[in-house]
Design brief:
Elements (H helix, E strand, L loop, with lengths): L4 E3 L7 E10 L5 E6 L4 E5 L5 E3 L9 E3 L8 E9 L2 E9 L6 E6 L5 E8 L4 E4 L3 E2 L3 E4 L5 E6 L1 E2 L7 E6 L5 E5 L2
Antiparallel strand pairs: 1-6, 2-3, 2-7, 3-4, 5-6, 7-8, 9-10, 10-14, 11-16, 12-15, 13-14, 16-17
Length: 176
């Protein structure tokens, strides 16, 4: 989320037409098209964040700027050339790294939260403990995972929470 993404088309010479057909999960479909015989581009219902990376006659790659969850979906590049018709299909999935929060509850137990990640993060503790993570879904498709540390022995003074996520792992320690 927040980065740029570039999707490429089949590398064919003598392209006569290129069409990007985009079907996001949110909102309606959009298309970007290019015809070489007229040196003409066309766009239908595409947001300004989606455009040709360069000039389509040089490189028909699609660039999505400031990728967000709404950009998730299917992207198909169709190329018509003197060699035939070719297509490349992408399914774009957006990862949202969770925000790690670690605090002590009213009873002095460490609580670890992986806030608003996509997909849901996994939480574990460095020391052996009993915990049951709880998940809370949000309207935008992100998930908050909450885990409370309960030590098997009472002499634990420091707890370390480890959050595992495809967008990156994080850890933090706290003494309650």
């Amino acid at each position: 989320v927040g980065s740029s993404s570039v999707l490429t088309c089949p590398p064919k010479s003598n392209r006569t037409m290129v069409t990007w057909k985009i079907s996001p999960k949110v909102g309606g479909p959009c298309t970007l098209g290019y015809r070489s015989d007229q040196n003409k581009t066309d766009r239908t219902n595409c947001s300004n964040s989606m455009n040709w990376k360069l000039r389509p006659d040089q490189d028909p790659a699609l660039e999505i700027q400031q990728v967000g969850i709404a950009h998730e979906g299917n992207y198909i590049c169709e190329v018509v050339s003197t060699e035939g018709n070719f297509h490349e299909t992408y399914h774009l999935t957006v990862l949202v790294p969770p925000r790690l929060t670690l605090y002590c509850d009213d009873h002095g137990n460490p609580v670890c939260e992986a806030v608003a990640g996509k997909p849901a993060a996994r939480i574990s503790w460095v020391l052996e403990s009993s915990f049951t993570p709880r998940e809370e879904g949000h309207d935008n498709g992100t998930v908050t995972v909450v885990s409370k540390f309960t030590a098997y022995s009472s002499n634990v003074t420091n707890a370390t929470c480890f959050v595992s996520h495809p967008a990156g792992n994080q850890s933090n320690s706290i003494a309650c």
